[in-house]
Amino acid sequence: MTSAKEKYQSRTEILQGTLDMLILQVLHWGPRHGYALSKVIRTDSGQILKVDTGSLYPALHRLERKGWIAAEWKASELGPRLRIYRLTKSGRKQLVAERSRWAQLTEAIDGILNPAKQESES
Fold first, then answer.
1. Assigned domain for 1 exists
2. What's the confidence (pLDDT) of residue 103?
3. Are strands 69-74 and 82-87 parallel, antiparallel or unpaired?
4. Does the pTM exceed 0.90?
5. Is residue 91 within 8 Å of residue 63, measured between CB atoms?
6. Is residue 90 part of a domain?
7. What is the pLDDT of residues 83-112, one digit of tens each?
8. Which domain holds residue 106?
9. Structure confidence by residue, pLDDT tens digits, 7-61
10. Is the Cα torsion angle 38, 41, 46, 52 positive or negative in sign?
């Protein structure tokens, strides 16, 4: 049986900026409520990335304040109303910028992890 400490140590933490980019990307595919967002991130990452509600909802509120996403309450067939989030025009622009920064970051990290690859390309 896995202890709580082992679960915590094997958990993959998501940096705040990375979480913002992931939320924007998922909403680029279509509007979703919070639980659906976290489920897509978890499923599409092969169960590696798990976003706790304590991180997700503050991020959604932050993105909404910045004008990158918008939200509205909609009726649910299964119970209480759901807050549905969607990407705004400025959110689409921000996603492009975030993806560009992510590409630069991963290239820089790859250069450190695989220096021989960088030397052979020079």
1. no
2. 96
3. antiparallel
4. no
5. yes
6. yes
7. 999 999 999 999 999 999 999 999 999 999
8. 11-113
9. 544 555 566 679 999 999 999 999 999 999 999 999 999 999 999 999 999 999 9
10. negative
Cβ atoms 31, 84 nearer than 8 A: yes
* CATH number for 77: 1.10.10.10
Residue from 45, 85, 40 nearest 63 by CA: 85
For residue 15, the model assigns a pLDDT of 67
Mean pLDDT of 109-117: 91
Domain count, the chain: 1
In what order do the strands lie in the sheet containing 82-87?
32-33, 82-87, 69-74
Give the three-class secondary structure for 76.
Answer: coil
Residue-wise pLDDT tens digits, 3-13: 655 554 455 55
- Say if 107 falls within a structural domain: yes
3-state helix, strand, coil in the chain (%, to 5): 60, 15, 25
The verdict on residue 19 lying in a domain is yes
Determine the Cα–Cα distance for residues 83 and 74; give it in Å rounded to an integer: 6
Q: Which residues contact 35 (CB under 8 A, 6 or more apart)?
A: none
